[in-house]
Structures are given as structure tokens and as C-alpha cells.
Specification:
Length: 176
């Protein structure tokens, strides 16, 4: 339970630093993220909150950018350059006929001897298909190699560590 007490102590210190006063706070959650903001904000407070959230988004995205190779257009036929990001969409009637559930990932393998493409249900390992589409589009625009990003997602290796980005500020008392 020591870790839980540490978290509570940090939350209390963070609330004090955020200068929320008697404000009612509203938590918002996402996949692996909790954001706590004042329920009501003035225009200036909202702009300052947006600035901080933008800085945090940049910091997190930069860790992905640093971990991936840059797209050097290594092949004109790169699977990740088309609008489907190289993934296969199978018509509903074919998927249902094969007993593959809706939303399941499909893997294609080539049977060169018989000149066939074999489609099978892919496993639960996360890949680029699980990432938010707008963020993948942003990564593509930023020049990140999507094939490398896909492999990084599949590896499930951590690329962001809050402590790496905040240790100095925390020691200086500027970040909680």
C-alpha cells in the first residue's frame, strides 16, 4: 500500500500547486490517462489549460517520434502509404462465412506455389490498427516511419517515462 500512499501524497501536493482553491474538479479519463481539471474555467484559465495540455501532448508524442525511425520512402510500394495503412478490409459476408468476428484483425499470407493469398484471423497483439487514426495520420505527416511505429507498438516496449521528463523540475519544486 506504500505506493498508493505515495500517489495520494503526490495528488494532494499537485492539487495545492494547481491553485484550484474551492473549485469543483472534473476527472476525465482515457486509455492510460487521467486528467483532472476545474469544472468551470474563465477564458484565460481555459487557454492556459489548453497550453499546458498541448505541451504535455508534445512531450508524449516526442517520445514516440524519438523511438521511431524517420520515413525515408524506402519503397514506393510501402504497405503503410495507402489509406488503409497496409491493412486488409474483408467484406462482411466473407468474414462471417469464415467465422471471423466483426472487428477482428486479419492477417494475409502469400502461397506463392498456388498463387493465393490466405487470410486468417490475426492474434490480439496490438499494432498500428489499434492506434487512434488521427494520431497515426499526424505521425505520418511528421515523417515517422509507420512500419517502424507498427513494430514498436507490437513490441509493447515503453517509450515514455514521466520521470525522465520531469525529474529535474520535480527536484526544483516546479513540477509535482
Amino acid at each position: 500500500m506504500k505506493n498508493g500512499i505515495d500517489i495520494i501524497d503526490r495528488l494532494i501536493a499537485t492539487f495545492e500547486k494547481a491553485n484550484l482553491g474551492e473549485s469543483v474538479c472534473h476527472p476525465s479519463t482515457g486509455d492510460g490517462v487521467i486528467v483532472i481539471m476545474k469544472e468551470q474555467m474563465t477564458a484565460l484559465e481555459a487557454l492556459k489549460a489548453a497550453k499546458y495540455l498541448g505541451e504535455l501532448m508534445y512531450e508524449v508524442f516526442e517520445s514516440v517520434d524519438t523511438a521511431c525511425e524517420k520515413c525515408d520512402h524506402c519503397a514506393e510500394d510501402c504497405d503503410f502509404m495507402d489509406k488503409n495503412l497496409g491493412f486488409i478490409n474483408v467484406p462482411t459476408h466473407l468474414r462471417e462465412h469464415c467465422g471471423i468476428p466483426e472487428g477482428a484483425k486479419i492477417r494475409a499470407t502469400l502461397d506463392e506455389d498456388n498463387k493465393r493469398i490466405i487470410l486468417t484471423e490475426d492474434g490480439p497483439t496490438p499494432d498500428l490498427r489499434d492506434a487512434p487514426k488521427d494520431i497515426v495520420a499526424y505521425a505520418k505527416c511528421m515523417g515517422i516511419c509507420l512500419a517502424d511505429l507498427n513494430e514498436l507498438i507490437k513490441s509493447e516496449i515503453p517509450v515514455y517515462d514521466w520521470r525522465d521528463n520531469h525529474a529535474e523540475r520535480e527536484e526544483d519544486g516546479k513540477d509535482e
